[in-house]
Write a structure and sequence with these properties.
Length: 223
């Protein structure tokens, strides 16, 4: 497709005062975002999930190749299969697959082998990265900046989940190849993350350590 410039279709510029106010409001709202492991069984309409994924699909990507695919799962039997496979990998991880240093780093977060959130949450969203494209003749076409592009899309996804008043958990069993078979995705796609999505349970808890975020002066340098 040749380059064809079009006039900027949307402008959302604000006054300086409005921009300061809205940026502060957005920051305050992000401070209320938490990764949650305790989910309510309250159902979530499919339309909300579709809107969330559609928002993630608006993320920028290298060469606009959009190298991602999202699989949304409501079916309980399928969620059970994913949980069983994930817990097998976690058992290997905690019984020698991970270094003592890694296990020690996870200790303040209270993680373990049991992954009940994978069946308790009303929805799972599995994120796949398209490592390369397959042409109709079977040849491969390179995608560019795949990890960066998918990482940005996942940021959009998590922000959209929070914006909808829902919570999620960023879950990454390792390895995750079992997800290709369970989700019917081709070998050129690599599973990156499972996100259980829903409302927090009434007695939901988070690790105290998760509230400690680096201050601005440690994450920002201004010249």
């Amino acid at each position: 497709m040749p380059y064809e410039p079009i006039k900027l279709p949307d402008r959302v510029q604000l006054s300086e005062e409005e921009a300061i106010q809205k940026s502060q409001i957005f920051f305050d709202y992000t401070c209320k975002r938490h990764s949650v492991r305790d989910f309510s069984g309250k159902p979530i309409p499919k339309q909300i999930i579709e809107n969330i994924v559609a928002a993630a699909g608006r993320a920028p990507s290298g060469a606009n190749q959009q190298p991602w695919h999202f699989v949304a799962i409501k079916d309980l039997n399928m969620k059970k299969l994913i949980r069983e496979a994930a817990e097998r990998e976690e058992k290997n991880f905690y019984s020698g697959g991970a270094s003592d240093e890694w296990i020690s780093a996870l200790e303040p977060l209270g993680t373990g082998i049991s992954k009940s959130h994978l069946t308790e949450a009303p929805w799972l969203i599995v994120v796949f990265a398209e490592r390369y494209r397959k042409n109709e003749d079977g040849s491969r076409q390179k995608n560019y900046y795949v990890p960066e592009s998918v990482g940005i899309a996942m940021g959009f996804l998590i922000a959209a989940i929070h914006n909808a008043g829902l919570v999620c958990l960023e879950h990454t069993p390792n390895p995750m190849k079992f997800l290709n078979d369970l989700c019917g995705r081709p070998s050129n796609e690599k599973p990156i993350m499972i996100l259980p999505v829903g409302h927090p349970s009434e007695d939901a808890k988070i690790p105290k350590a998760a509230k400690f975020k680096k201050p601005l002066n440690e994450i920002l340098t201004v010249f």
